[in-house]
Every structure is written in structure tokens, then in C-alpha cells.
Amino acid sequence: MQLRVIGCHGGETPRHRTCAFLLDERLAIDAGSLTSGLELSLQYKLEAVLVSHSHLDHIRDLATIADNRAQRGCPPLQVVGVAADTRDVTLSGNRPLTMYVPYAQRPGSRPALVVRGRAGTPVSPNVLRRLVASVDPSVAVLGGRTLLDRLQAELRPQRTASAWIAGFGAIALMLAAIGLYGVVSQSVLQRTRELAIRSALGATPRVVFATVLRDGMKPALTGAVVGVLGVAGSLPLLRSLLSAHASDVRLSAIAIVVLALALLAATCLPAQRASRLDPAEVLRSD
After folding, report:
1. What is the Cα–Cα distance from 274 to 211, expressed in whole angstroms?
2. Structural domains in the chain (count)
3. Residue 96 neighbours by CB under 8 Å, 6+ apart
4. HSE (CB half, 13 Å, CA atoms) of 223?
5. Three-state SS for 219?
6. Domain-ending residue, one of 38, 58, 80
7. 117-154: b or e for each residue (b if 16 or more CB lie within 10 Å)?
8. Is the pTM of this model over 0.70?
9. How many angstroms separate the CA atoms of 257 and 220, rounded?
10. Percentages of the chain per state (helix, strand, coil), in multiples of 5
11. How confident is the model over 161-205, as pLDDT tens digits?
């Protein structure tokens, strides 16, 4: 077996070529520099190209070598190994480099058997062991989990972190509502004489309620506007860092609505109390 290294770099310079290897002048492994580093006579002799993965430095010359061979009338070049990247071990981290080979070439490995039940029903480990034993009783089946179980186990840390974040968010929302309630209550207490005079001059309880509610919601609305502008301005950065999508924008809108409703409820309580003031009693006490 004769192996020739045409290139083995991730980039190309006058002294370096991208990944490509020639095996026995018949099989090429990767096609990063097949046409830029291989003579035409050897390009015509190729029978197949084995591509390890779909990065540009491994597939760049596939189109040009196909064109060169087509002009010469060579038979079609068989390309093996171009498959979509997948995650079969973990959902996080980089995708590992994987090569699919017949099991006979690696008899000492531990293969994973993927079984799908009819109508999407899960296959129990006992049934799986019986099926394998019916083919070869000497083969032992270890473990046995559904894909849903593996997915839930993989996502458990993220879901736990999300639950903690949601809990802290609920606490922050409650503290914000309590703070606004205290501010509006203090404002109503300081304006008790003013509100009583307005009521004595003919202001109805509804007008007093609306006045207190409007004055109390001003800081909440100001904060909501500033928050919306901040989210809109940082959305490109969030998308690049956290892979945010349109659904995340909808969740942000829902969070703003929930916060506004909580602050509205915190403002309504002192506003309702202010609308029930007795002007005669307040002015007599002063």
C-alpha cells in the first residue's frame, strides 16, 4: 500500500495545501487539494474519493476534479462519506470526527443497537435481549434506554439551570411589585389632603382612582419602554451568543406583559384605597 500526502493543512499558502491523501493512485482521502496538488494523469486514474467530513478544506476540489475528468471523458468519480453532521453522544460541544466502517473491520468494538418499535412504542430491554438471543445467544446486551430517556438525561442540567433562573425571575418580579406598591402607597399617604380636597370639589372616586393609577404606572411604563429598547438593541448580540430565535422574542414580550400586569395589580391596591377616602374625615383630622 502506497500513501501520498498531498496536503494536510486547514488553509492554503504557497508552501501548504489543504487536506488530501492519495492511496495506491486509485483512492483519494479528502479532496481539499486534489486538483491543485495532483497531476492530471493521476486525477484521471482516481476511482473514488473518501471524504471524512464536510468542511471546506476537505471538499474544496471536488467540483474541479469532476470537471477535469468530464472533459477527458473519464467514468464518474464515486464520492463516499459525504453525510450530514450528527450528534450521537452529546448535544453540547463540538461534533466529533466520525468514520463509518464495516463492523468486521473493528470486531473488538461495542456497537450500539438502535431499535424502533411499531407505531412508535418503546421496546423494553427484555424484549431486546430475547431478539438478540434468538440471533446469537452468545451476545450480551448491556443497558437499554429509550432515546427519550437519553435526551432527558442530556438536557437535565440545562433544565435545572432554567428552573433556577425562572425562580430568581419570579422573586425579582415579586420584589419589583412590592417596591412599586410601597412607592405608590407612600405617594397616596403624602397626597391624602390633596386627594381629599379634590373629592370635596367634586372629583368622583373613579377620577381619584384613575389619577393615582396613572401616576403610579408612570415609572413602570418608563421602565418597560427602556427594557424594550434595551432588548431590541441587544438582540443581534443575543442571537450570536445564545442562538436566540423568534420564539425567544415572543417570550420576552410575554415577560413584559406579565411584569406590567403585576405592577398594575400593585398599583391598584393603593389607588383603590385612595378612591375610598372620606374628605370630611381627612380635612377634619388635619
Report:
1. 10
2. 2
3. 89
4. 13
5. helix
6. 80
7. eeeeeeeeeeeeeeebeeeeeeeeeeebeeeeeeeeee
8. no
9. 11
10. 60, 10, 35
11. 888 988 888 888 788 778 877 877 777 777 777 777 777 778 788
Give DSSP secondary structure letters for 25-90: TTEEE--SSHHHHS-HHHHHH--EEE-S---HHHHTTHHHHHHHHHHHTPPPPEEE-------SS-
Residue 223: count of CB within 10 angstroms of its CB: 16
**Exposure letters 62-92 (e unless 16+ CB within 10 A, then b):** beebbebbeeeebeebeeebeeeeeeeeeee
pLDDT of residue 90 exceeding 60, the answer is yes
- Which of 52, 80, 108 is at the close of a domain? 80
Q: d(Cα 146, Cα 152) in Å, to the nearest integer?
A: 10
87, part of any domain: no
Q: What are the cell numbers at 91?
A: 448535544
Cβ neighbour number for residue 185 with a 10 Å cutoff: 19
- Considering the domain architecture, whether residues 73 and 163 belong to the same structural domain is answered as no
Q: Per the structure block, which three cell numbers stand in for 267?
A: 398599583
